[in-house]
Amino acid sequence: MILVVDDEPSLVEAISSVLEDEGYSVTTARDGLAALRAMHDGLRPCLAILDLMMPTMSGWELRAAMLADPRLADIPVAIVSAFARGEMSMLKPSAILQKPFELSEIVELADRYCGASS
Amino acid sequence: MLGSPPVQPFDFAALLEAMPDAVVVADMRSRIVYANASVERLLGWAPGSLTGEHLHAIQPERLHEAHDTGFGRYAATGERRLFGTPIRLPARGADGVEHDVELNLAEISGPNGERLVMGVIRDLSERVELERGLRVLRYLKATSAAAAQLWTRLDPALVLQTLTDVLVADFDSALARAWVYEADTNTLVLTASAGLSTRTAESSRARIDVATYGYKVGRVARTREAVIRNGLEGDPEFDQEWVTREGLQAVACLPLLSGQTLLGVIVHFSRLPLPPEVAETIGHLAALASAALNDGRLVEQERAARADADRSRAHFELLAGVSEQLAASLDPEVTVQTVADAVVPTFADWCVVDLRREDETLETVASAHREPQLMAHIAELRSSYPPNERTDPPHAIYRAIGGEKTIREAVTHEALEQRAVDGRHLELLTQLGIGSHIVATLAVRGRIIGAVSLVRRPDRPPFDEGDTATAEDIARRAAMATENARLYRSAEQAVEIRDRFLAVASHELRTPLSVVYGHWELLARWLRNDPDAATRANADKIETSVRRLGQGVDQLRRLVEELLDVSRLAHGTMDMRRGPVDLAAVVRQAVDDADATAATGRLSLELPEGPVVGQWDAARLGQVLDNLLLNALKYTPGEGRVEVTLTHDEGRALLRISDQGIGIPADELESIFEPFNRANNASTQHFPGLGLGLAVSREIVSRLGGSMWAESDGEGRGSTFFVELHSGDPSPPVTTDVGVQP
């Protein structure tokens, strides 16, 4: 299961479509809070793809909450952002995708972290 | 010396003629029977002309009676009261002039045995000359002694008192007086007096109007020439009873001059006659006093000039210090504080700088006090008792700002008591200390941006005219530096806003670009893997992606359009294409579009019956509506609703767009309409946006003759945006567009 957290529905649709085409199952959240609730309810994605700028709870806050929770800290996280890479090291991401990115990069990440299982 | 007889039988006549002393022989009837050549020479008679004259001829008239009595008694009785001792008395010359002579009398026998009286007369004028010389010598000695005293006195009153004292002590003056001349009023002011206590200064003479005063003092002041008068008897200018009683012989009235400049006048009443050479010594003394007066005047001028020079130097040092400090900083608050620190304590004991805020209220931005522990007092004074504009008179700051002039005034404790609102106020003012103050305005290009208040405590000399100029100089420099710092800061802010905008803009462009890129990539993948994809079951997915791609492109176009509008806004080239527009239709269309794209069921619309028509630009109004609706939906998370209401009443169309979103902080209700500016909570909560939509929208509404504003109950409590437009009557024509639209 791959979690895509982004407030831009069009982008979520594109990412979901390509991953589903590749055979992965995808769940989405519109903001950080919805994603965090889902994980507190037991969701354990093999990869979380996070946008940083979102209303209600930003990607920064969500990532901080994940790192603070031992059950969630190990989940691989790919950051999707328009910001420069340097500012994101403190989020300890597994990967950084700078907008605009290629969908093939998403597929590569999915293959790396979730590939064997599905 | 000739004594009494015996007379020897030899040629007496030749002897008598040769004698230097004058010899006169008279009979018992006072008839002159013989006078030698010396008598005639001494008294100015022609040779031989005295013989046969009565002795009265060579006596002053006043002595005639005494002579007749005494000589008659002697002739009758032989009583020789005056014989044997030299008698000093005046003799009268042929010209009436009296001569001091010494007379020795002897009785001799005439050729016929008759009694005759011989008088040997010795001229004493040399001795008088000598005595006069000694008097001059004594006066000159006194003059030189006085010189030392006069020299050391620079104060005119002391110089003149010394002068009159010297006249009385050493120059046989019965009364001496001195006046100082005041040129600007043409008046003599009685400054010193010595001598007769019976003649104290009468008030009428304490000040003498030079132009009109008829007596000697006035004449001397007018002509600058000395008057010496011997013999005061019969002079109508003097009280004769006083002259006789005091035995006054002469008066000297002299001008005190430096060149032809009149410094004063002295009057000297003498108990001795004042022959020219004696009067001259008084002239010397007067000259000496004049020189001392003049020196005093020059020293005073020099001292004043030096004080002026010292002042100027201090003034420039102070200004140089202020300028140097001002140049060192571009922070307005730091700048004005350096002014306050530079002028305390050298120029003022304490200082407050107030700047005018945009709403005209004052903000204290800097202060200094020579006793730093009193700084808290200044803060309390300004916060608890701020300058009041409505008192009578208004606070000095308001008088300075209102009158656009510098206020300089001395402040008494009574004035403070009147000004104080209560006991604590008075306590603060008293402890800070106010003796005098200057309030100078800070003006930049004719606009008053504040005021600097400089205060001296009561124990210090109050501010004077020269200090006003210094204060104005300081204020001018401070105002310029403050303005420079403010401009620098706003330029810095502009650069910062631009940098932030560029960062935001690139970020905002990247999101739709990602959407476009992603869906294009999806379509490409599908087509590559299966060229017939479009005909298969996944036709829905393809259609969605194509739509998303279109929306992404549309979003990019909108952003680019927004950027172009900002550029038009900055250059004033945003033109309107005006024509009859139904606002209700525009609103309905915008709501439908918004509902279709993003907000199924979250929008509600309330419209008036019938069209709302005005001379507007339909496309631009549509842009405003889109903007406001997208904003309302963007900032209203979840299922929050957005209500759109249009009302129309008496030519006034009012559009309200209310959301249940994150709200707007009260102090940002205005600034959100500035280009590149976004409310703080919009940025921190990562809502996307360029911060341009509202600026552009307001400009459009304003160009259509309407207005636009926002209201909010605060953060998290929703916002309402209002657009007000005037329908029916077209507002004044605005430049119509000729193809500026791209």
Describe this protein with a few key phrases.
heterodimer, A: 118 residues, alpha/beta, 5-stranded parallel beta sheet, 37% helix, globular, B: 742 residues, alpha+beta, Beta-Lactamase, 4 domains, 6-stranded antiparallel beta sheet, 5-stranded antiparallel beta sheet, rod-shaped, disordered C terminus
Give your account of this protein's structure:
The complex is a heterodimer of chains A (118) and B (742). With 118 residues, chain A is α/β, with parallel strands linked by helices. Chain A contains four helices and five strands. Chain A has helices at residues 9-21, 32-40, 59-68, 103-114; strands spanning 2-5, 26-29, 47-51, 77-81, 95-98. In chain A, helix 1 (9-21) crosses helix 4. Chain A is globular, with a radius of gyration of 13 Å. The relative contact order of chain B is 0.04. Chain B is 45% helix and 22% strand. Chain B is rod-shaped and about 200 Å long. Chain B folds into four domains: 1-123, PAS domain (Beta-Lactamase, 2-Layer Sandwich); 130-304, GAF domain (Beta-Lactamase, 2-Layer Sandwich); 339-475, Beta-Lactamase (2-Layer Sandwich); 575-741, Histidine kinase-like ATPase, C-terminal domain (Heat Shock Protein 90, 2-Layer Sandwich), CATH 3.30.565.10. In chain B, a hairpin with a 5-residue loop joins strand 1 (22-26) and strand 2 (32-35). Chains A and B meet through helix 1 of A and helix 15 and helix 16 of B.
